[in-house]
Structure formats: structure tokens, C-alpha cells
Amino acid sequence: MTTMDPTVEGALGDKPTDETEPKGNHAPGMSRVCETTGFTVDLTAQKFIQLNAVAAVVCLLIGGIAALLVALTRWPAVHLLPAEWYYRMVTLHGLSMLILWIIFFEIAVLYFAGTVLLKSRLASGTVAWVSFLMMVVGGGMVAAMVLTGKADVMFTSYAPLRAHHLYYLGVILFAVGTLIGVINFFATIYIAKRDKTYKGSVPLVVFGAITAAIIAVATLLHGAAIFVPTWLWSIGVIPNMDAAVYRLVFWGLGHPSQQINVAAMVSVWYLLSAITVGGKVLNQAVSRTAFLFYILFINLASAHHLLVDPGVSAGWKIWNTSYAMYLAVLASMIHGYTVPASVEVALRRQGHNKGLFGWLGAAPWRNPGFSGFFLSLLIFGFIGGITGVTLGTEQINIIAHNTLRIPGHFHSTVVGGTTLAFMALTYYVVPLIFRREYPLRAVCRLQPYVFALGIVLVSFGMSFAGSYGVSRRHWDIEFTGATHSAGYDPSVHVWLALVGVGGIIAFTGLLMYVLTTVMAVFFGKKVEGKMLAW
Amino acid sequence: MAEPEQKHPLQKLLDNPWALLALGVLLPIISYTVWGLVELQNLKPALLP
Amino acid sequence: MGIQAPPADWFKAPSGTERAWIGLALLWCIVLTLAMPYWHFKGKQNSTGEAYAVEPAKFGARVQSFVASNKVDEKGGIPVVEPAPGGDAYVQAQMWTWYPILKLRKGQTYRLHLSAMDIQHGFSLLPINMNFQVLPGYDHVLTITPTMTGEFPIICNEFCGIGHHQMTGKIIVTE
To answer: Distance between CA atoms of A409 and C91, rounded to whole angstroms?
Structure first.
């Protein structure tokens, strides 16, 4: 006999009964009503959520294997890969994770938010196919070029370092495919409003998804602006690619692409707060205005990649990195308050009122959807946010630029933050969208903790090694064979060993996630959308 | 209950994804990209004393 | 909740601890915003971002004439060059070496010109750890005053190909 997970069913609260229920705009037979939540699920959207989610997890596995190999190489006592393959794996790892895994998953999140939460059909299944296939082919081209040694250029591919032209074409294909998916999402928002499938303003999670989609458009326009000329340069049509122009425009793609992640992650936090504990939004206007600050200002902070660059002025650096960015920092500080506050209020309402933190102890820590979400909040907020704002100042950047402090920072944000939040969400996607039961539930319960521990150790190890000046993307801290000797404080061996050990633990957590998800999706018992208790 | 005609301008903006899209694309392009490109374009040639 | 359409009157001002928190956070952001330009002018370690456009060949030629007129020694096949105090020093980055070695005097101020001959490189001076981007086509000028004597390695921390991890240089500082 299976026990139902009471939180999801009870968590939705009472729908207002004094208003007429808006009608969906689905074609007959093209939707189903979720047995657990009562939401109407468009079957076309469901198919593409599934396709994009599966593609995402495949890319996560590839990126994860590359990560393990890289971590075991930076651990000096192990120094696993030879130089050429180390640099190649760093490139593959960056691309698979920062672009492929995370963007495939975000398209799935957009399709979910625009349809299920608005009771709307997806604007176009054909457009969704075009988008998906372009992303798969583009991603495949990129991976193939890297693995065959034709694109040893890092995720940043800084000109005049040059890759094979098919590499740039693959990136362009993936980016255009993504843009088409984003347009499909906006079209869905449009028809939902037109067909009156919801009343009043969109739900907050949808508003957060819209924020992510807007940032995605700004990202992808910069992507086209830099990769099309770079591709033309790689085939000899354009004679020169200026290094500073490349950096400026590339980071107009590169940084905002990670801000899509922030907006999507925060939306997922609100979503998970609602379905794990029944968390309500404290103040809709406050949360939405915080997302507005993301929309207006967060992309200006791309300037922090150029703080020690020649060419752009101190005024440009200070304005873009500071004033406007601090409004985006304010937005993060707001979400960092309202999201855990919503959890606290919900748990206190359930009766867990003992002392200051009794509610926290009584939270559903056995539910990986909750533990992953809350750990993501803590890691992103404390480690990620603080290191990021610190590194993004002119003076500290002089000390930190291109050292391991930089990846130390962004592993706590993109990985400990966004990736962990997406993993947590998957524990609902599988039973409710794929409608399969998870096997090995003990492994699922442990997974977020293992992954979080590993990533925190990696982040700390990198940050401390980097504070001694250890370079990122660098194969040999002993500088063997160099003309002039160089080296670091011997303690960096300890910090880099921590990166290695943390990498093994994080990889284990990643494998736990991938294996349980694959087993559930392909071999799990069909459960018709019922959620089991954890 | 607030009636639609009395919507606060901020709420009107928040409820308008198209306005948000326009602002979210234009602001970073102007403040970060265009301004940066103009500065790079206007760099003086090196004197190399 | 966040997954449902909000009630029609959702546009409300914050209250209570939420309002207090927003006020505190906003105050903190204002402090940070003012601190950045303040420290730009008051802090001791700042780059004004002085930079010029230059053709790699021209920069390379200037480096050669700098070496020719100021060379005092050689280490590991690389010339050691002593610029005039208060004067200009030139260092080029090239796959995979920093050229030449500089010999500087403690307490003197120099204008260090950095540029790359081929692709992007990362100037990273150890162990203080100061890092600046070095780009082909750009003369990146740093006004520096050594405050300690010794031999300081320069490494490259911008990926520049298979010899990246062997790319080193040196700055020597004497009394």
C-alpha cells in the first residue's frame, strides 16, 4: 500500500470558490487534470518538458564526468589528466554545465510555467520541435568539436584564440534554438492572456519565469552579436576579431546567461516553497518588484568580468558594476528574506511554533524536494552572494581576477544554487509530469545533502587556493619546465586536495541524482501522478 | 478591491510583459554594451614614450 | 501561493519585519554604492584603466628598443632591463613567455606598459597576487611603485594554449 505525500495535496490550500473557474484553451483530448494538484496539464507541453528535461540530465552527466576528471587533475597528488586533455575537459565541462544542462532544463521550466500554471496550451508544438532539435544538433556539434580537439578554447573562446568554425556554428545553432523556445514561451503567455485562461495577474512563479525569459532574450541577442562575426572570422570572411570588443560583447551573453539561472532558480524556490510546505507569498508587490530589478539591472553586472581590462573606463566599470548592480543585489536580498520567511510562516501555521527555530527543525528534511531547495537557498545566498559582491569590486578584483577564487564563487551560485534547486524540482517533475515512481528512495533522500556537501567543499577549496593566487584553468601549479621558476605557498596543496575530495563527493551526489532519475523515468512504476510520502 | 482603472503605474508595468521585455533588453544594451563599445572605439593611439 | 494567480488587490506596500528588512538592505546597498567610487579615489591599490590602441608590431618594436637601451643583464636567455626611475617600462606577453625581465628600484614609480603579441594573456604577479588582462591591440598602462625588494614571478592566468602553464616571467626589485 502506498502512502500519499500529504504536503502536496494539502499544500495547495483552498481555491477561491466565489469566482468562476477560468477555462483552459486546450484542444479536446490534449490535456489532463493532475490527480494530485488539480492543475490542468497540456499534453504537448508535457512532452516537451520531458524531452528537454531528459536532454538536460544527459548533458549534466557528461559535464559531471568532465568535472570529476578536472577536479582529480587539479588535486596535485593525483594530477590525473595530461595537459591537453585537462584543458579540453575544462572546456567541455564549462559548456555542458553552463550552457547545455542548465538551458535545456530552463526551457522545461518555461514550458511548465507558461502552461500548467496558466491553464493554457503551449503556443506551438511544431515550434517546440524546431527549438529542441536545433538545440540538440547545436549542442552535439559543440561537444563533438571539443572532444575531437578542434575547440580547445574554453567556454569563453576568447578571440584571437580560434576554434574550428563548426564549433561557433554549433553555438549559434544552440542559441537560436533556445531563442525559438523562449519565443514559444512568450507566445504562450500571449495566448493565455488572450484566451482568458487565468484571471488578473499571472502567478508569481510565472512572473519569475517571464523575468528569466526576458533576460534570455538579452543574452541571446548578445550571443548572436558576438558569435556570428566570430564565426565569420573563423572562416576568413572577417580579417580580425578585436580582443576587447569580443570580451565586451561575449560577456553580454556570458554573464546574463547565468542571470537567467538566477531568475529561474528564484522562481523555482517560490514554486518549491508552495508545494513542499504550502508557503505563501508574503507580499506579491515586493517579490515582483524584486524580479523587476533583476530585469532592469542585473545584466549590467557583466562589467565585473572586465574590471581589470584595458579599454573601458573606470566610470563605465564603476557605474555598471555598482550602482545598478546593487539594486539587483537588493532584489536578491529581498528574495533571500521572503522565500525562507514563507517557509517559516507556513510551518508555524502547521503548528510548529516552538522557540525561534523549531519550525526549521520540523521542516520536511526527508523530502529531497525540500532539502535540495533549502540548501540551494543557503548556499546561493550566503556563499554565492557574498563572494560575488566582494569579487565584483575594482580593488578585490585585482587580487582575484583569473584565480581559482572566481570558479570558487560561481560553483556556489550556479551549482550549489541553481543546479541543486533544479535537482530538487526534479523530485516533483518525475512523479507529476513523467508520472513515475522513484526507486531507491533512500538514495533520493540523501542525494541533495551529498551533492551540497561536495560542492561546498569544492567552492571552499577553490576560494582558499585562489586567495594564494592559484590560477584557474591551469594545468601545473609547479610550473615544471618553465623558464623562470614560480610556485605558491605550500598550503595550496591542501586546498586543491579539498577540491579533489569535494569533487568526488559532488560527483557521487550527481550520479545519485542521474541514476535515480533515469531509473524512475525509464523503468519506474507508473503512478498516474500520485506522490508518495518521503 | 482595486478597480482596473485605478491600477498603480508600477502595477501596470509589472503586469505588462512586453514593456518589461523592451526595458530589460534596452537598458543593458545601452548602459553596458553601447557605452562600452563607444569607449573602445574612442581609445587614443599609444604614444609609447 | 506563488503558483496561483494572486488576489485582485495584491499590490500592497510591505509592512512589519519585511519592511524593516527592505529598508536595511536598501541602506546597505547605498553604502556599497558610495563605497565603490569613494575607494576608487581614496584606496591605494587602484588602476585608472589607462589604456591606448596599439598595433602589436609597433608595441613589439618599442619593447625591442627598450631592451636595447636599458639592458643590464640576462637570466635564462631573457634580457634583464632596468628602466629609468619615474620612467616607462615595457613588457610583452607572447605564447609562452613574458619578455623582458624588469629590474626596478624599491620606492620608485614606473609606468608599466603591457600588451600581447598574439592572443590574450593574464598578467599575474606573485605572491602579492595582482592580476591584469593583457590584450593584443591594447597598451595597458599601470602606474606601479614597488614597496618590497625581491624576485617576483609573473605567471599567465589567461588560457593561451598548450604552453600556458609554463609561461612565466620575473620582476626583480632592489633597494
So the answer is: 31
A368 in Cβ contact with A376 (< 8 Å): no
A24 touches A33 (CB < 8 A): no
Cα separation, A9 vs A277, whole angstroms: 10
**B31 and A320 in contact (C-beta within 8 Å)?**
yes
| Closest by Cα among A38, A29, A24 to A196 | A24
C11/B45 Cβ within 8 A: no
DSSP A327-349: HHHHHHHHHHHHHHHHHHHHHHH
Q: What is the pLDDT of residue A322?
A: 79
Q: What is the mean pLDDT of chain A?
A: 94
Distance CA A166, CA A228 (A): 12
Is residue A392 within 8 A of residue A304, CB to CB? The reply is yes
What is the rounded CA–CA span in Å between residue A424 and residue C91? 51
pLDDT tens, A224-258? 999 999 999 999 999 999 999 999 999 999 999 99
CATH number assigned to the domain covering C50-174: 2.60.40.420
Q: What is the mean pLDDT of residues C33-57?
A: 92
Kindly list the residues of chain B whose beta carbon comes within 8 Å of any beta carbon in chain C.
Answer: 1-2, 7-8, 10-11, 43-49
Q: Tell me whether residues A310 and C135 touch, CB distance under 8 A.
A: yes
Residue A2 makes CB contacts below 8 A (sequence gap 6+) with A527, A530, A532
Q: How far apart are CA A25 and CA A17, in angstroms?
A: 21
Chain C residues whose CB is inside 8 A of the B48 CB are 54, 58-59, 62, 88, 90, 113, 139
Q: Is C124 on the interface with A (CB under 8 A)?
A: yes
What's the confidence (pLDDT) of residue A533?
Answer: 84
Name the residue with higher pLDDT: C44 or A514.
A514
Provide the residue ranges of all domains of chain C, joining segments of one domain with +. 14-43, 50-174
How far, in whole angstroms, is CA C23 from its chain's centroid? Answer: 36
Residue among A225, A233, A232, A231 nearest A250 (CA): A225
Pairing verdict, β C130-134 and C121-125:
antiparallel
**Lowest-confidence segment of A173-182, A317-326, A398-407 by average pLDDT:** A317-326
ipTM of the shown complex: 0.96
Which residue type sits at A376?
S
Number of H helices, E strands in chain A: 19, 2
A411-427: pLDDT as tens digits: 999 999 999 999 999 99
Q: Can you tell me whether residue C120 is helix, strand or coil? A: coil
- Yes or no, beta carbons of C32 and A199 under 8 Å apart: no
Q: How far C140 CA sits from the closest chain A CA (Å)?
A: 5
Give the C-alpha separation, A328 to A374, whole Å.
Answer: 21
Dihedral pair phi/psi, residue A111, rounded to 5°: -60, -40
Helix (H, G, I), strand (E, B) or coil at A416: helix
* CA angle, residues A322, A327, A331, in degrees to nearest 5: 135
Of the candidates A388, A227, A209, A384, the residue with the CA atom closest to the CA atom of residue A301:
A388
Is it the case that residue A91 has pLDDT exceeding 90?
A: yes
